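Review session, final week

We close the course with one last complete record, chosen because it touches almost every idea we covered. It is START domain-containing protein 1, a protein from Oncorhynchus tshawytscha with 233 residues. Go through it on your own first, then we will talk.
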Amino acid sequence: KQDISVRDVAGFPFVNATLPKRCNSGIEKCSVISGPNEVERLSQENENGDVIYSKVLSGDRKVFRLETVLDATPEEIHHILWKVEEMHQWNPSIKNIKVLKQAGPETMVTHEVSAETAGNLIGQRDFLSVRHFSRQESCIYLGGAATHLETFPPQKGFVRAEDGPTCIIIEPLADDTGRSHFTWLLNMDVKGWLPKSIVNQALPRAQVDFTRCLRRRLAEGPTHYQLLHTGIS
């Protein structure tokens, strides 16, 4: 297994020069994907209020959209999701995530390894991704897209999947109850030789499982963000 250091990645000129632009472009593409045209509803609302839709993209690949309501503010949800290196602590589908490069407070390059869990139809994968967040009025957007670095090739023993692009949109509810509308657009090429029917079954299931884990994390109590901002307007 090749030993790749954070310094190797940090020295690659692509990282600082184009990451924010690529991620903002990805968020814009996700906004187009999330439009109402040619969208199929895949599931009835479950006990948590989750609903999943799908849309066929060029190349016959599907993007999946999960919509639900979470009992937390956009800032609280964003704070948890942006601490990617802690995500494996509350999401058993992730083995680990390593931040390889922080390109400012809003952009980072990460390497993620999925866990080998029971019922995982896709199997273990790794991802090399650019992650970026932005704010537009009261909404928070978290975008991601696959990237390629010569200094960080696919790792031995893993199939490298690709996000392309994916986006989470967090918007406060109008009733001012501290809850948020949560939309997750998942657009992924899992690679390998899996039948599309298996992939199209596994990805929306993964969305529901992830959101269930996120709810549990939110229910555990105040986040570090909440503790820091108690009493601060």
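Two points worth writing down before the exam:
Helices lie at 6-10, 14-33, 74-82, 196-219, 224-229.
Residues 125 and 159 are 5 Å apart (CA to CA).
Good luck, everyone.
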